[in-house]
Amino acid sequence: MKRLFILLLLFTTTYQCVRAQRYFNLSGKVTDSTGQSISGANIRLRNDNFGTATDDQGLFKLKLEEGYYEISISAVGYTNQTFKSPINKDLTVIFVLIEKQISLKEISVTKKRYDPSFDIIQNVIENRKTLNRGLINYKCFGYIKASDKLIVDTTRKTNRGKAISNQPLNIDSIELELKNVTPSIPEMNFAEVDFTKYWGAPHNIKEERLGVRVLGEKKALYFISITEGEFDFYKNQVDLGKISSVKFISPFSPGANVSYKYKFIESYYVGQRKIYRIKIIPRKIGNALFEGEVEIYDSIWVIKQVDLSVNPNPLIRYNSFRIKQNYVIANDGFVYIESQKFTYTKSAKNGHRKGETSVNYFDYSPNLILPNRFFGNEVSYVFDSAYERDAIWWDSNRRDSLSKSEATFVRYSDSLQSIRMSKGYLDSIDGVYNKLTFLKLFWWGQGHVNREKNCE
User: Fold this and answer.
1) Residue with the larger pLDDT of the pair 436 and 142
2) How far is 452 from 426, CA to CA, in rounded Å?
C-alpha cells in the first residue's frame, strides 16, 4: 500500500510538472520603413544563442516556453531592435527596422565636389514602392546558352615530370578518329534551352521548357533553368542560387550605404533619356557584397544595368562570379529583365574551368487571365519533345549566336551523334553484342539487340 501511494504521488508530481511546461508560438514579420520584407534578419533571445532567421518573405516563427523574454531583432544595414514581452499565449508581431545612417561627409563630398551618386541610389530605393505597381503576372519567352571550357595550365607537371594532358578519358574509336581529324576541339560542356516563363505576384514562377540540349556534363554548368536563381536587385538581399547559401546585400536596399560606398562616374544619353553610371564599392572585404558598376535612368529612377562581381568567400566551389543584367522599360510602362550574363571560374584538376551563361528574355505579355491554381508545386515542366530537337531545329530557333569555340564543339558533337546513330555504327555495336560466345552460352546467357529499331 505504501509503495502504491509513492508511485501515485510520483505520477501526480510528474504530471503537474509536464502540465506546467507550456509552450507558445511567437511568429511574425520583419520589414523596413517602406514596408518591404527583410529576409535573413536574425531573431534571437537576449543572452542566448537560441533563435531563428526570417525567410524570403521576412517571416519567422519561434516556439518558446511560457515566460518573460527579451528578444533582439537585427539585420545588416539596420538599427537593432529589442522586443520585451511575456509569452503566455500565441503571439504575432511585426517588427519594423530603421535603416542605419552614416556621416554625410563619407558619401557626398569628394575633393570638395558634390557627388550625386548617393542621392541617385536613394531615389531608386524610394521608387521601389511604385515600381511595376499594377503588374499581377506576366508571360515571356526566353533562351539560355551555357558553356564552360577547360583552361589547361601547361606549366603544371605530373609526378613523372610530364605535362598534364587535356585528353578526356573513355573515348571510343569513333570519337578518337573524329578528334584526330579535327584536333582543335575544345574540352568543354554546353547546353541551350528554349523556354516560356510565367511570373505571378508576389513570388510565383513557372517554366515550360520547349527545347533542351545538353552536350557534356550538365552539373558543370550554371543556370540552365530560370528556377536556379532570382537576381532581383530591387529586393534587400539577392539570391544567387546554388553557388552560395548566403544571400548578398543589394546595393539598392535601404541602409545599403552602411555596406557600400557609391562613386559617380559619368552621365550620358540614349536618345532623350539621361543615364548615370555609378561605381559600387564594398566597405568591408569578406562580407557578402557586390562590387562593380550600375547604370540608372534619370528622373524615373529605374535600373538600366548592373555589372557586378561578388566576393568569392561565400561561394561554393567557385573562384569568381560576375553578373551583368540589363533591364528594359516596355511600352506598357512596366520594367522587365531583358538579358543576363553570368561569368565564372572554377578550379579543375588540370587547371581551371571558365564558364559563361547568357539568358535573353523577349515578348513580355502582362496581366494575363490564368487558370486557378496555375502556379503550384510544379515550377518547371519539360515537353516530351524538348530533348528530341535536332540541329536543324536549334539553328532555326536559337536566339543568340554561338562563340567560335561553342560552334566548333557543337558541330563536332552533332557529327559524333550522327555517326553513332548511323545504321553502320549501330550494326557494328549490335554485332559485338549478339555474337555467340562460350561464356554467353553456358554462363551469362545469350541476348539479342537491334539498336536501329530500338528493340531487344
Assistant:
1) 142
2) 6
Helix, strand or coil for residue 294? strand
Strands (E), 12-136: 23-31, 42-45, 51-53, 59-65, 67-74, 81-87, 91-96, 109-110, 113-114
Which residues partner with 356 through β-bridges? 147, 343
pLDDT at 222: 92
Which pLDDT score, from 0 to 100, does residue 376 have?
Answer: 84
Dihedral class, residue 170 (left if φ above 0, else alpha if ψ from -120 to 50, else beta): left
pLDDT in tens, 319-364: 999 999 999 999 989 999 999 999 999 988 878 899 999 999 999 9
Rounded to 5 degrees, φ, ψ at 158 are -80, 180
Q: What is the pLDDT of residues 265-307, one digit of tens each?
A: 999 999 889 999 999 999 887 778 999 999 999 999 999 999 9
Burial of 42 (0-12, 13-18, 19+ CB in 10 A): middle
The residues, any chain, with a CB within 8 Å of residue 23's CB and separated by 6 or more, are 63, 64, 65, 66
Cα–Cα dist 184/381, whole Å:
37
CB crowding 111-121: b at 16 or more within 10 Å, else e:
eeeebebbebb
C-alpha cell at 325: 543584367
The pLDDT of residue 416? 72
Q: Quick one: DSSP state of residue 284?
A: S
Q: Is the pLDDT of residue 256 over 90?
A: no
Mean of pLDDT over the chain: 81
CA 116 to chain centre: 32
Residue 165, classed as helix, strand or coil, is coil
Ramachandran sector of residue 91 (left: φ over 0; alpha: ψ -120 to 50; beta: rest):
beta
Domains of the chain and any CATH numbers: 12-96 (2.60.40.1120), 137-244+315-418 (no CATH), 422-456 (no CATH)
Cα–Cα dist 237/255, whole Å = 12
pLDDT confidence of residue 445? 59
Contacts of 196 (CB under 8 A, 6+ apart): 139, 140, 141, 142, 207, 208, 210
Task: Give the 3-state secondary structure of residue 332.
Answer: coil
Residue 372 grid cell? 486557378
pTM over 0.85: no
Q: Using an 8 Å Cβ cutoff, are 283 and 297 in contact?
A: no
